[in-house]
Structure formats: structure tokens, C-alpha cells
Amino acid sequence: MVFLAVLDGTVTAFVLALIALGLSLVFGVMRIVNVSHGEFFMLGAVFSWFAYHWTADSVWGFVLALLIAPVIVGFIAVFSERFILRKVDYNPESTIVATIGILYVIQQLTLMGFGPEARPVEAPIYFRISFPWFGYSGYKLLVAVMSGLCLCGVWLLLKRTKLGLYMRATQQDYEIATTFGVPTKKIYASVFALGGGLAALAGVLVVPIRQADHLMGLEPLLLSFIVVIIGGLGSIRGTIIAAFLIGISDGIISVFYEPTLAKMLATLFVVMILIIKPSGLFGENQQ
Amino acid sequence: MMSNKEKGKVDQQSELHITRRSVIGAGAAIAGAGIIGSQLIDPVAKTAYAAGSDEPIRIGFQAHRTGIGALYGRWYERTTNAAAKYINSIGGIAGRPIEIITEDDGTDPKRGADVVEKLATKHKVDFVYGTLFSHVVMGSAPRAGELKIPYFVVSEGYHVASGALNRYVFQPCITDVRSQITAVSNWIFSNLGKNVALIFPDYAFGYDHRDYASAAAAKSGAKITAKIAIPPTASSFTRYFVKIPKNTDVIYHVMVGPGVLTFVREMGEHYGTRHPKLFGFIDSLEGVNINSPGLEFLDGSHFWEAMPRYADGYPTSGSNFYRDTVGVDNTGASKSDSKDVSAYSHMFGCWETLFAIKEAVEQSGYKSKKDYKTLIETFEGFTGFNEGIAHPQGSKVFSGKTHQCYGQQFVSQVKNGKFNVVHRTSIADGMYEPETDYTKKSL
Questions:
Q1: Which of the ends of chain B has fewer CB neighbours closer than 10 A, N or C?
Q2: Cβ contacts (< 8 Å) between B262 and chain A: which residues?
Q3: Best mutation site among A11, A46, A210 for testing chain B: the one with the most B CBs within 10 Å?
Q4: Residue A52 belongs to what domain range?
Q5: What is the CA radius of gyration of chain A?
Q6: Above 0.95 for ipTM, yes or no?
């Protein structure tokens, strides 16, 4: 039972880290709270369904969705950044309201175009791993591995590329970065696109182990907020560590007690963090 | 409970009609029973509203177009529209055309109450009808009572018969969970095993399953090894299966919501081929193709069905006509899209309820809202509905006291990628003593 709890928790943690990373990046660099982040995840899943149906093949549909969904969602994110967030000058309060608006627009457009029902997408590969006590979905483990690779990719992007350097510079000080010739406006757009793209990627990976529906963005949004607040807004390392903390504890508490209790404890943990260390476990002190 | 002698022997022929003898038997458990000759609809008797006025009977349809009930909502709407079209083609209700006004409640109890109010006050409908999810019924029914408008639900929850609602609420054409469990529990315990783990959705409908399956087990000497409640919005289920004890013979599962396919698949992943026997309520697979990848492990397992999804499960002329008119093929999918699998064990309730409303309006002489009292009293006087085009699922015994019907149930086995009916209960198998008497409540 402990093994299953840790295994299930680890898979949850990898996916959660991937979704929360986008939210954390956007906050870290742009200082805005993107409430529509869960909808980018949902769009990834929905595009995956369309790709699966267009190709009528689970493997090619998956590959197509992996390539296309993050790009389309990235463009949607850039569009929102350019025509909405930039217009309100990235004001923290206004952007919260604006992104709530984006959330509803995306959700309702999906409802109109995709419909209200949950639609299944077949996994590109389907196999069951038999342990002596129980079986587990092989695809779920693949999701964890692919999420881990994506996380490494983002890490490399931030640490080893010029774009990453610019992002980190913008995060540290927007004005000085601008003075030194960093195209900060473009960096903002890129970060918002990257955040959305990562969420969409997570949506593509996750949809075969659940189903696509227009309301599926809410739960990952709440969990991402929990992770990002605990880890420290803007801290990539904190986000990943918090994702594992929440994911694995969620797995263990769910198996031994109740899944609802796991959610309650996670929320309680957030409250404690906000009282004791508002900047999060690894967050920089803002005040 | 009834003695065996009291249990009515309901005609088990494919074209089932309630006879005087069966009614006296089956109805003995319900005080005052005795069938009033129900007026079956004769498709030939087209009258084109000749006898009535052109003023339509307006029926407000509270539909789950969005939210966790969207799959059911889609099929409830198709069935409702098909039934309304057919009723209009045979002369409408009391010579008046039927008009359906649909509002989405988002499968949300709060919005449900708002929808009832909007239908009653803005659209000025004659009746409100069609709600399925029990938490929405629980949220909406009190508003219908306050507005004093008849509210016909197609929900399965025990909430109507329990007496928890009010005299304006009826569930005339779909059996409740208590009745379903009463009818099939002995079959489960005798054929599959006596150590049973219950998996059910974590809200009112699921609690009915938990409570009445536990009660039935206690009565039959069976043992409930675990009671596992799962939120209907859950998207991952592995963590729940690990709670099922090793000494379990049968997993009794009923699940609803957007994750049903994932639920069943993860059960297969967890157990592989070496699983306890499985008895599912078809809710766990409504709208899901039984041949979906990952469901192979279900082969040989059993399901409760209210109305067999595959046409050969109950090929009566009434059910064939109904299937064809609603647009469902022989495998239970849409005729126009074989991937669009229906909610076949629930949606017949919409078709039948509209015919029950028709019968009540015609027998009571209902003309307008001022006739609600007569209509409700007439409905409470009904004791059943005969099988046929109007009631394709089978005959019903109706209790005016509880505003709830009783009907036959089916147990099907999955074999060769389809559901095969292996057992059909009698109406009497699912009957229980009424716990309330709405006729004594004020209007």
C-alpha cells in the first residue's frame, strides 16, 4: 500500500510540477497572478482530443498534439498578453480580474466549440505493469518520465540559453534589465507563452489517463496555487520541491485516510505558510 | 415486506400487460392499489388537436446540458424532443400541442432552483420536468413546492419516496435506487458472493446505494466489507481501489460523472484479470462503449440495467418503436454516430414521464394552472401504467402515497463485447413498504 501511495503520489507530483512551473514562471518574471492558467491546461487536453480525432490514430494524434497544442496555446497566451495584460499595464489587481475574464472566455468558447461532455482520448501506448500486489498503468509512468524531461528542458532553457538569461534578468529587476537592452516586453510575452505552453503540454500528457472536458482546468489551477504558494512564488526550485511534497503526501494520505483529507491538509498547509512564511519555503522576501 | 403470496406475479411475456390478477397481487403491498385502466396511446389515433385548443401545454424541461450530468442531459434532451414530436404527431395532450421549453441547470443544485423559478415565472410553463441528478432534485424541489407547480423528476434517487420532498414532486416512470437494490440484491448475494465492497459516488444518490445495499446485505446474511465514497468530480481512482479488502467476493460499483471511463479502466489496471466478481450499476458505463480499450477485463462481469442497451435484451414492439423513434441503434449508440453511446437505462424515464403527464392531464381535465389540485389528485389516484409504446421499459406500479413507481429490472452480463440479459426481475421483487403519504400533505 505504501508503495502504491508513493508511486501514485510521484506521478501526481511530476504532472503538478509541470503545471505549477508555468504559473510560477509567470509570477516570478511578470509579477502577475494568472488565474486563467488552468484553462491553458484544459486547452491542451481539448486540442489533444481534436488531434486524436483528426488523425484517427492514438500515436500520431498524441505526437501531433504534443507538437501543436503547446504552440497554439502559446499563441493564445501571447495574444492575451499583448491585448489584455499589456493594456492594463500588468497592474497586479487588474491582471487578476483580467485573467479571471480570460478564464471564462476560454471556458465558454470551449463549451460552445467542444461541447459540455467529457471525451476520452486513447493513450498512445497502453500496457499494464503487474506488481505482486496490484497493477499500474504503464502510460502513467510514461507521463511521469515525460514530465520530468520537460522540467529538465525548462531548467536548461533558464540556465543555459540567452532567453533564459533574459528571463532571469527581467525577474531580478525589470528596469535595470530594460536599461541593459533586454527586450523586456518580448520577454514578458515569451514567459506568458511558455507558461501557457507548459500547462498545455501537461494537458496533452494527462488527457489519456482522464478525459477532456471544459471544466477540467479548475482542479489543477487550485493545486498549482497551493504548490506555488508553498514553494514560494517565483521560485522554480521551490515549485518543484513543493509539487513533490504535495503530490506524495496527497498519495499517502489519500491511500491511508481519505483523498478529501489530503486536500484539506494541503490547504491548511498553505494557510500556515501564509501566516508563518508568506514568501513561501523558497521564495525571495518581497516585502 | 410482502410475503411471497402477496407478491404479484407479473406477466413475464415480452409484451407485458398488467392484468387484474397481477395488480391485485402486486398492489396489495401498496394500500389502495388497483389499476385504473390506463389509456394507452394508439399511434393510429391521430386527432391533430381536433378536440382541444391550439394553446400548447408548456412543459419546462430542466436539463443538465452542462456540468457533470452533461452526458445524461444530451440524451434526456433527445428523448424528450423525440417523445414530444411523437405525442404531437398523435394529437398532442388533450388535443393541445405539447411545447418543451428547455433550460440548462449546469447539473448544479443552486442553479436548479433558479431554473425551476425561471420556468415557472418567466416562461409560465404548466409543469416542470426532467431533472436527473439527485442533488439537483434535492436543491430544486423545495422551490417547486413554494411555487406550487407540479415537478416531475426522472432521477432514481430515493428522495421522492422517502417523503423528504413535497406533494408537488412526482417520479412516476423511473424506479428509485431502493427499489432497484431490493430487486437485484438477492440475485447478487446468491450468484456472485456474500462479501461485498461498495463503491459509490459521494452524494445523495450514492448514499442511497450505500444505505439500501447495506440494509439488503444485513437481511440476506451478506457482509459489506468496505464502503468507499468517491467524489463524482474525481479524476483519479487508483487510490480508492487499494481500500478494497482482500476477503471481498464482489465489488459492487456505481459511479457517475466525467470520469466514469477512467474509473472502470483504472479498476482493470489495478486488478488485471484476477479481480473479485464485479457487479456494476450501468451508471458506471452509461455513455461508454463497452468495447473501449482497457475495458476487456469486464468480460464476464455483471451489470444492473433498467432497460437493456442492446436491442436483443428486450425486443418488445414498444421498446423497438421507442428505440427507433429516439434514434438509437441496436447496440445502444446514436444511429447517426456509433461512437455516441446513449444513457439507455435512464432516458426512457423522460419518454414515459411525458406520456404519464399526458394521461394525467387527459384524465383530470386539466386546462390551466388553476386545475393543479385536480391534476395532482388524479395522478395520486393512478396505480400503474401498462407496457407499450407509452411505457416501453415495462409496466409500472405507481404509488400515490409515495409519488413513486415500481418496475422491472434487468441483470446483464458482458460477453463478447456486448451486454446480454441474464435475469429479469418481476415488479414485485422491487417493492417495499411506503414510508410516507404525500396525499396527506397540504397543497
A1: N
A2: 209-211
A3: A210
A4: 2-223
A5: 19
A6: no
